[in-house]
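User: I'll paste a sequence; please echo it back and then give the predicted structure.

Assistant: Echoing your sequence first, then the prediction.
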Amino acid sequence: MSTRPILDELNDRSREVFRRVVEAYLMTGEPVGSRTLTRDMSEKVSAATVRNVMQDLEYLGLLDAPHVSAGRRPTQQGLRMFVDGLMEIDPVAPTDRARIEETLGHDSSDVAGLLDRVGAALSSMTHGASLVLTPKHEAPIRHIEFVNLGTDRALVVLVYSDGRVENRLFTPPPGQTPSSMREAGNFLNALAEGRTLTELRTQFTQEISRRRQEIDGLAAALIEQGLAIWESNDSDARLIVRGRANLLDAEAADLDRIRELFDDLERKRDIAQFLDLTEQGDGVRIFIGSENKLFSLSGSSLVVSPYMNSDRKIIGAVGVIGPTRLNYGRIVPIVDYTAHLVGRVLSGLKG
């Protein structure tokens, strides 16, 4: 939900109090009291006045207090409003820029090794856990075939133009016959030439709706199941996670929630879902707390950006995960700069 209307309703004093509370919280991780704020306000105001403003901000759902006598800290909604409307993005520091460029500057065609170094550098610079999605194998397809192995088992064979062959076992839809398998293979092979798997999936979706009368329903279901198997088992796509120990340092008081996050990082290898987080817009995306659907832990934030090949096609992503009180103003440009450099380097390697 957009927080822009709430931000527009705040007067200058309320904005300043809110901004200072959030900035202080992101720096210290502690609730902020009214007396602390009065020392830094641009106008001379009493602690009572600041308390009243903070109470109004709490009523709006932007601040809360861990207990009655404590100061205030931003809520998830408050952090979202700060990030969207008030945050100042710092330029990438020269030392950070040099570190990223050095990491990517190795003369090597080892893409996996390069991206592993990127993950280590991001984790070190941001003091969070880094996430790097490696590119999928995207060679054009030469041939596709379905092989019946029994009443509830089938094999889908995918041959790439570079000679690589993939075999995937799956449970076919009920009622498949040799003729429906042949029809499914013939239909896909007619569309597949020169297309990658991703392109074929898009083309198939369009063709199946346009030519529904021309292809048997059993064959259509078989194609859908076969393509789903390929997409969910791309052996060349993997998620690299570095810097888990940084999360322990950041949230030592809440080990149970950190262990839950570790379990998510280890268990959820749904690469397509991670990449989906980046596909709704070009550039950095920020997921705060429960907005982050990939991980069940609500007390974390994810800053993620896609990287693209020379054709401006998204082929992977880099990101940083940590507590909600991340230094967003510094981390956002680091992730953005890293993603752009990774895309440029990989385009050069592929070329």
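The chain has a mean pLDDT of 79. The chain has three domains: 4-86, 94-136+237-350, 141-232.
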